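Problem: given the chain below (114 residues), write out its structure.
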Amino acid sequence: MLLRRLFTAGQISGVRLLRGGPRQNFSPRVIERGVGEGWLSLANGKVTLKSDPPAIFRIVQSPGYYCCHCRKALDGGSAAREHIAVAHAGKMSPDPANPAGYRRDNFYATVKES
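Solution.
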């Protein structure tokens, strides 16, 4: 995604979405910065960019630990290891990049609604 901040009287008034696809990953840092600067809002499971027209993204997955086998959200590293040992014992991870069978995502996965 490529954004350009728009300024009015020296203040950030919004952003212009220059390039972006139907699926976007927003880091917590971008979310915090956008909310702080006023060009992004996070509410009701949606990320909204203050642009013309507004770009609205529905959050499909929040940052956290997830099982690579069943995609279940997990409470942390130790809970993830326990889940793999109990629910998927002896099975190879379906994700070669995460051979332990679980992964930690540090982003909000979203789908563009408008």
